[in-house]
Every structure is written in structure tokens, then in C-alpha cells.
Amino acid sequence: MADPSTCPPLTRASVIAAHALITPYIHRTPVLTNTTLSQLASAPLPSSSPPPNSTPSHPTIRFHFKCENLQRIGAFKARGAFHALERLKLSPTFNPSAGVATHSSGNHAQALALAARTNGIPAHIVMPHISSPAKLAATAGYGARIIPSGSTSAEREEVTAKVIAETGATLVPPYDHPDIMLGQGTAGLELQEQVAPVKLDAIITPCGGGGLLSGTALSCEGTGIRVFGAEPSFEGADDARRAYYSETGERIPSVKTLTIADGLRTPVGAVPWSIIYERRLVAGMYAVTEDQIKAALRLVYERMKVVVEPSAVVGLAVALFNEDFRAMVEKEGGEKGWDIGVIFTGGNVSLEALGKLFSE
What we know:
Elements: H1 12-22, E1 31-32, H2 35-41, E2 61-67, H3 77-88, E3 100-103, H4 107-118, E4 123-128, H5 133-141, E5 145-149, H6 153-167, E6 170-171, H7 178-195, E7 202-206, H8 211-219, E8 226-232, H9 239-244, H10 270-278, E9 284-288, H11 290-304, H12 314-321, H13 323-333, E10 338-344, H14 351-359
Parallel strand pairs: 2-10, 3-4, 3-6, 4-5, 7-8, 7-10, 8-9
Antiparallel strand pairs: 1-2
Helix pairs in contact: 1-3, 1-7, 3-4, 3-7, 4-5, 7-8, 8-10, 11-12
């Protein structure tokens, strides 16, 4: 990958420049609203949900959904992959014939495979053996060579290092690099433009490796829009939330979880963490349960008729069910309430997986 020291500065202006670079390769995905979901979010939760002896919050929330499930390859990851590859092509040390390599559970794998095929470059993709069959098939369909690995980030990285040593391919990491972050941030930039003349009060995005969350935060720098991260709580998948509110603020380097939000099973990266926590461009981190993710997913399917994967609705689940987040919106939004942008990150899920998910 390009030496981070040679990358553009991590600023809103650089996100704007990244958008200009990748516009020929990406879709300008639509922004949807939904009255029913906004009304549900604006009603108090059942009395059993808040902590004992407390009054349920009653915020006023208006949602604006950025549908990256309709992006190329079905996820926002296309933005970062195309930006990283366009930047690599400018480097005199890049060897296109050796190709590119990465590790990913699915969406970044597909994105890099597509970007590489578009440019006639080989792609070597390390994918955990527990990756969904749909994502494996889609990645192979873009012409990539797939190499299996274990499910943890350490296992993925070990196999990727061997592939690079054997092939001479250039690493394009899934999230922990400035070029990836700037590319992902273009989704937040578009969202701000598309809702105008409405001024968003906040944007909430899921957080796995943190590329989208940090990129979105950069896209909002200096605008007054607050950015929040959302994670699953299952088996410690909320590593960024725990680190964000810890006494030391030290990033948690490893995560081992089988949350249904499979795109969020990775620890937050060091470079994204520098934006999320060290520069404090992210205003807060929140987590939700597996049942809350499934409930949000069902609402999107039944009320919006939109195909999304579990990882995509974690931000919505926070706004619907996390009492701490909702109480904060009620306090700070007052009677006017908040216009909240929610990024639906992807829609790569099979019918078989959905059937199994809702049969449990």
C-alpha cells in the first residue's frame, strides 16, 4: 500500500478530493426517508427496556438513510477500494503485474476484486473460512484468487503476509489506511449534499475496522454535524466503544466474536482510531444486542422493503433501542429534535442466511 506519509492529509478537503477521483467508478446511492421508522424512534421504549426506576426517553428523530446497499458490489467498500487503487496507480513503485492482496470477510474482498478487474490487475483475497457463501461466490465472480484463513484478524493477517511474500502483490488493507478512510468518507459527503437544504444534526455509522466511521467523521469536520459509531455488543465486538470510554483510551488490538453483524467482527484500526478517539472527531460510541440488530433488520425489510445485511442496521438499532443514545438526543435536540443520517453499509446477504436468522 502507499506509504501513509505520502497520502493526502486526513481532512474534509481530502475527502472532497477523493470523491472527485472515484466518481467515474461508483454509484451516487440514494437517500431514503421513512415516516414509520422515524415515528418508532420518536416514541418511548417499553417501560421494561430502560434501567429500573428511570423514565423512558422521548426523543424526536427524523431519519435519512444513505443506501450504500445499492453501491457497486452491494456495499460502501467499493469507495475505499477504488480510491486506494487510483492512488496506487500514481505511485512509481507499484507493480501492477504482481497484483494486489487483502484480507476480508466479504465486502472489501468484493470491492478490491472489482477495482482490480476494472484495471486489469490480479487480486489475491484472503477470506475467513466462515465467510458467507454468497460473499465468497461474489468475490470469485469478479475474478479474484481466494485463499482461505481462520476467522480472527491475526489469522487473516498471517495468511495475507504469506501471500504477499509469494506473489509480490501490494497490500490494500480493508480499513487501516488513509486512502481507504478518505474513500469511505465520500459516502458521508454525499449524504450531506443530498439532504440539503436539511442540515443534519448527526450521522451514525456501524464500526468494525473504523474506516467508514473515521472517514465519515472527516467528511463532517467543521460542519457542526456530530458523528457517532455503532457496534454489536456480542462477545466483545464493541471493542471501540469499550476503548473509547476506558480510562486510558488505548485501542483494543484483537476481537474474537461471531456476532451476526459479520462485517463488524474486526478490531478498530490504528489509523481510524487516531481520528475517532485521538482527534475526537467522533462524538460517542454505542452498542446494541443481537436481538436488537435482528429487530432493526426486520423493520427495514417489512417497513422499507430494502435489502440490507445485519451489519448495515447496527446504527439504526442504536437510534431505536439504545437508551443512552436516545436520552442524549432528547436532551440535546429538545422539541425540534434531530435529523439523523444513517448509513446502510451493505446488502450482501443470501436468502438462506436470512431465513436461518429469522427462524431462530
